């Protein structure tokens, strides 16, 4: 079962592999070798899970995008086998955790639970993320392109603020959802909806403050963690961590564990932004792992 680790352990909790078709196609082993070079001690492989057919059949962007979003179901076993093989091969150099980035899809909890039930005994880590919302003509990806965000979501909900609202409602539901005993404990990129914030600005920058506070208290109540996801820092229209620092500080005040996630989709992403994580976490008292966050 999953252990918690002190912040002093160099750990990456969110990464992708060749089983992600919007990544570079580089092999997981190349990422792992890079992580060892970068002196990571723990590295979670958290590939996107296959999507339920009733979701993918309602994504209007076309088969090209759908193919890119996630591996098909029949590949899940291969992915897990690959991850387990690497874990064994590199066990003297790095602790690899076999995991998944699981989509929370509002209303499709039973599909997700079924998937988790089918492979939960092989999972050692996981991230629970919202990437899809109902939108124009079906389900829309919240992080595809700025033009798609406008067309599929802003035009559908009426404003950026309302899209944010819908997204945070889904995140809140994800925390409360019953996905069974193998539900991931970590909320992925809490503010992914900010990805295009420089292009599509909310009218009220504080429009979701209440949602965020509520979400954090639920994360705490459910004994969950947050993905300190640096990918947003490198998105030209976002340029901030998912989540931004005020949320990180609030989460730390609540003693919610924050796990660095590179969200690597190519080998060169491995370890990026770790300095930012260290700098922010270094200011936290007790962040040396000497508190109750460390458990077996
Ligand atoms: Zn991805
Ligand atoms: Zn993600």
Automatic annotation (TrEMBL):
The keyword Transmembrane does not apply. It catalyses: L-histidinol phosphate + H2O = L-histidinol + phosphate. Residues 12-229 form the PHP domain. InterPro entries: Histidinol_P_phosphatase_HisJ (IPR010140), PHP_dom (IPR004013), Pol/histidinol_Pase-like (IPR016195). It comes from the Bacteria. The keyword Acyltransferase does not apply. Its EC number is 3.1.3.15. Coiled coil: none annotated. One of its GO terms (molecular function) is histidinol-phosphatase activity. Pathway: Amino-acid biosynthesis; L-histidine biosynthesis; L-histidine from 5-phospho-alpha-D-ribose 1-diphosphate: step 8/9. Keywords: Amino-acid biosynthesis, Histidine biosynthesis, Hydrolase. Belongs to the PHP hydrolase family. HisK subfamily. This is Histidinol-phosphatase. It comes from Paenibacillus mendelii. The gene is hisJ.
């Amino acid at each position: 079962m999953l252990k918690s680790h002190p912040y002093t352990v160099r750990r990456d909790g969110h990464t992708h592999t060749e089983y992600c078709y919007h990544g570079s196609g580089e092999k997981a082993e190349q990422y792992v070798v890079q992580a060892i070079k970068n002196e990571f001690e723990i590295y979670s492989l958290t590939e996107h899970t296959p999507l339920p057919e009733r979701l993918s059949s309602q994504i209007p962007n076309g088969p090209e995008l759908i193919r890119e979003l996630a591996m098909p179901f029949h590949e899940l076993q291969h992915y897990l086998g690959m991850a387990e093989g690497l874990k064994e091969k590199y066990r003297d150099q790095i602790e690899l955790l076999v995991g998944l980035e699981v989509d929370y899809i509002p209303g499709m909890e039973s599909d997700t639970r079924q998937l988790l039930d089918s492979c939960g005994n092989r999972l050692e880590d996981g991230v629970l993320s919202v990437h899809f919302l109902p939108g124009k003509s079906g389900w829309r990806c919240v992080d595809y392109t700025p033009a798609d965000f406008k067309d599929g979501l802003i035009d559908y909900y009426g404003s950026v603020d309302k899209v944010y609202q819908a997204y945070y409602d889904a995140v809140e539901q994800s925390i409360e959802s019953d996905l069974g005993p193998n539900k991931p404990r970590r909320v992925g990129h809490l503010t992914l909806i900010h990805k295009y914030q420089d292009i599509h600005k909310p009218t009220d920058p504080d429009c979701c403050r209440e949602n965020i506070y509520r979400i954090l208290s639920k994360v705490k109540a459910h004994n969950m963690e947050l993905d300190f996801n640096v990918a947003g820092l490198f998105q030209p229209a976002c340029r901030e961590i998912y989540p931004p620092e005020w949320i990180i500080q609030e989460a730390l005040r609540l003693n919610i564990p924050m796990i660095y996630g590179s969200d690597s989709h190519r080998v060169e992403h491995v370890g990026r932004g770790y300095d930012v994580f260290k700098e922010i976490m270094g200011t936290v008292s007790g962040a040396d792992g000497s508190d109750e966050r460390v458990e077996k």
